[in-house]
Write a structure and sequence with these properties.
By secondary structure, the chain is mostly helical. It has helices at 5-30, 63-83, 91-112, 131-149, 164-169, and strands spanning 36-40, 44-51, 115-120.
Amino acid sequence: MKQNPKWILLCLTLGFALLDQASKWAAKLCLSPIHSLPVIPNVFHLSLAYNTGAAFSMFHNQPQLLTGFTSLLFLALLAYGLSKRQFYKGELLAMALILGGALGNLLDRIFLGHVTDFLDLIAIRYPIFNVADSFIFCGVILLAYTHLKGQPEAQTPEPPLASAHESRQNP
């Protein structure tokens, strides 16, 4: 039985969004905005933060605009993914990572008015981020790689078989 890539895309997208939401729930349950939890001291900490903006706190004063724009981008990418007939190897996973991460952060924006961040690479002074951001980053890298490599996963469909009438006339 052949699997439908559209259902796979939807299921993976929802799965990644759920993983992101679960990680944020655990972070809010176990962390405090006041204290940082060193995982690898002076390198990687868990630090709870809330971001009303986009990456690097851009647009933090315009949450409705950001939520609307993010929603449109998410729906456009989802429509594109669902309209595709064929995916490059890895492209379906890449799109699901991007969509799942975008959905995870979008749910935060809609229901909380901010995004929950907690992954803190203090060794390189990188802004605090979350699992959804990681999914989006990995998805973009994988998508770029798959398109540069350019190998379709499924072959182009073969023409339909000849009808029974045609096959009797041409043995």
